[in-house]
Predict the structure.
Amino acid sequence: MLCDKMRYNLPIAGIVLILILLFSMKTELSPNFDRTSLSAIAFGINTKTSASVLEYTLQAEAMIDLDPNTFRCEVHDMGCFILVPPSQKIFGKKHPKITDVKFDEETLITREICINSCFQKQYTLSAINAAQNCCMCSTGFEGFISSREIKADTSFVKAEKCRSSSTFHVYSKIRDCEKGVSKESLQQNRVGCLDIPKTLNQFMIALSSPQLLIEQCILNCEMRKYTFAIPVKQKGICLCSDSYSLFRTVDNMTQAMARCGDENNLSNSDEIVEVYRTTVNDEHCEPRRFLPPKQNKPILLASYPGSGNTWIRHLIEIATGIYTGSVYNDADLYEGDMLGGFLSAISGRTIVIKDHLFGLKISIIYTMAVLLIRNPYDATLAEFMRMNTQGHIGVANNDIFRKPGFKAFCKNQLPSFWFGITKVVLKTFVDKVVVVYFEDLVKNPIKEIRRIVEFLPKEIVGSDEESLERRLMCLNLDLAGKFKRPPRKLNSDPFDELLRGEVDKSIENMNELLLERNHPPLPHSYFYHIMNVT
């Protein structure tokens, strides 16, 4: 019987032998001889659609069956700091609640154990010192990593990029930890859809499983420290990748994010796969950093209040990887991860410095400027809302715009202050200014932030195109940030005709000034009311 099998398989063995001989002669036969195609022919596979997929399918490692209840925590990686003594005074805020988490001596405190322990106790920050096997929790940065005596940048530098034995790696909460991969997590972290990747590079891996589960694919990629998981259920393959290897450009990522569409079409497709973001922090995105002292000459980030200055700071920080500063020492923004807010404007350690130019005077310290402009009506409404909710994202009833205080506020702000900021910035900096419209930023944030980064000094932000694409991909996944107020609609016009006439005239005058200085014209929406009344 065994001999019968051998006789039956002999022709196949002969064919395989011939193919092997041909392969060994490939350099003589053709310099472009395709090994994958040869393998496909030998196994009767359609090379037109499956050859490149077969390549990494054959090389795939077996997927590990991980605990489906594995702890997973989504956090911002703030980097390493030296914790300040609790007795030190803090700036403008009561001392945060701080505690150290007690574990059994034999327990090895991992990142997830520390983070989950802190979050379960309603803390928003967790800090782990692996060398000391120690975990600390806090409700705020000030009094935890910084104080009046020790600023955040000093604490950051003393940590020696996580090399100091007294270093604590700090994480800021995005959402509560969970056991395993929940349906809600799958929905929140689905980035988009793309065609099945045909090839893998050295920064991607393939894992095989006869019964592929999306949850197991994500857990396996997280275990291997990859930021993206791509379950190729059609092939029983799980791909793990970083952002750049997968998308190459931020535009490709944007297309993938918009592609999934109809779920039924997706489930019936043999060529399209879903892409999921894991809980692994992308080292190209986080943590942000402080520049060395005096490295950067102060750059002004000017805007009329309510124009989205805080939001654009968030976008610039992610796109450059460098903290922004402010002249206002805003404790709420500091506790919202904007750790450059308490530094001196002349420290040279931040990339841009927020300044609303009250009094229409520009400090001589500034060397160039980013000018953010927003429709004056929308900006005034947003700023009045912020003042009446005591917060950057608070929302109140639209009735507040009917109060007498609103009209008084408008008279003090519009139109002279709104137009005045643009006039003084353009006059002071001439060609060392980039003008950005809030409305364009909302419509195409990646394009506008790319313009800003390309305007900033190359010796500070760098000139490597791949690095910029990576950071813009990070930005693409976190466009809103923590301080972008949701849009709202008004039932009536809160501005009277007299004020509107003055403001509309300022809009026309500002547009003429911008065009004279070779800047783009104001967005068409600024003139909508003017066209309706004339």
Summary: Residues 385 and 397 are 9 Å apart (CA to CA). The first strand starts at residue 61 and ends at 62. The chain has a mean pLDDT of 86.
